[in-house]
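tool_call: predict_structure(chain=1)
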Amino acid sequence: MKSLKVMQLTSFEGNIGDVFYSEPFPDLISEALKTDVEITRAHIRDFYLNSRKRNFDAEFLHKINCHDLFVVGGGQYFDVRWDYSHTGTTLNMSDGFIEGIKVPVVLNGLGYTEPYDVKENNAVQKQIFKKFERFISNVSKRDNWLLTVRNDGSIERIANRFGQGFAALLHETPDVGFYFDKDIIPYEFEEKLPTVGFSIGNDTFTDDVTAKNKTRHLNDGVAKIIQALISKGMRVVFFLHMPRDIDAVHQIMQRVGVEGFRKNVVIAPYNTSGFTAAKTIVSYYKACDIVIAMRFHANVIALQNSIPSIGLVLDGIVSGERIAALYDKLQMGCYVLQVDETDLNFAERLQGMLAHVLSDRSKCILLEKAAMKKIIMQRREYCTTVRSFYNRQNNAEK
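tool_result:
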């Protein structure tokens, strides 16, 4: 049997999370369709307004229709904030473009977000929401479209904005990052020390007048904890998921001091170029006794590999609601720490939570393993849904 030709539109590089969810996809879709697949990559960053290397035009439409299946995602492409777009999202597809797609389409585990500071009376924001609502209503009526969102609270946020009936038009599925290669050997440090991993991102704050204060509060607290860990002879590993994480680590280093960073502080290799690089980063994750993470996929990788983890959620962080929702869905909400810039005891509370988890790692690991059993079941359900959808399209064409 010949391979099915699949065009996938997503981000394959740019930050390490892109690699975590794009690399496992060929095996996932092959399992779902029970056949070999040949993936044609279309880089969504080429379609962004600040790039405009490619467009949702007749040329791209023709390429889509030369394939057996068109897949969009995974990724956070239901980011409803763009007034220039036909859909209110970075998927700037006109009605004519949508009408022209003749092959089956899977919107694959997309994340829904909206501006943190939505002003309900803002006419522009209202119009953007209407565009998105119209887009989903349109494609949900088309037999050749399957709509799925990832398990990061997107369904709940959509229901809160547009109603339960509207949310029912979409299926929920685990983020594909949960299927990244687990058989990776932990990085072996020469000196055996208790090791704490940090994934900190200052760029995740919304652009408001208090953003600088929130960033400062975060970095002060993290630096305080790192100083305490170093003084106890523990190792700290920083994980960089995207370029601006470098700045976050620099800000924390200035607070800890260069001399402090020379003692048991490691920065995991930053490389978003593909599977081999991602495996190297995961090997550093697996060398940690615990991970404290603000990045969504940092939490996913820790949870998937049964590494005790704390989801760090600060008020005003765009990714925070996704992390909190993920832990709640996996019945691990007790491992989320939520704070804001007025929380003067942030460092002490995080330090206390860190000590608690380290003292009873086995409990956290058991919960993570139970969560992954649920993820595996959801993967099977996803495969069944995609297979049934694709087979219906094939039978209809015959």
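agent: The domain at 4-180+373-397 is CATH 3.40.50 (Rossmann fold). Proceeding to next step.
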